[in-house]
Amino acid sequence: MDAQQVFTYGQQSLYILLMVSAPMLLTVLAVGLIVSIFQAATQIHESTLSFVPKIVAAVAVLAIAGPWMLTTLVEFVQRTLQAIPSVVG
To answer: Is the pTM of the predicted complex or chain greater than 0.70?
Structure first.
């Protein structure tokens, strides 16, 4: 295994990580921004007001995109494990 293969596997891993985590992170970011604007406009600074909508949004995204996320990760792990004999030998 040479350095180019190591960098390729690292690049693929980071790409999969970003692709799988993006729906959850972007949704929670958007909900947090909306809640923060609402809190600033109404001057209600309750900590649960910012926490509960984020949790609900994260669970909703996980319910909707969870199967795709899991399938993507399983396929990547399978490809990586199947590539071990060709990389080592």
So the answer is: yes
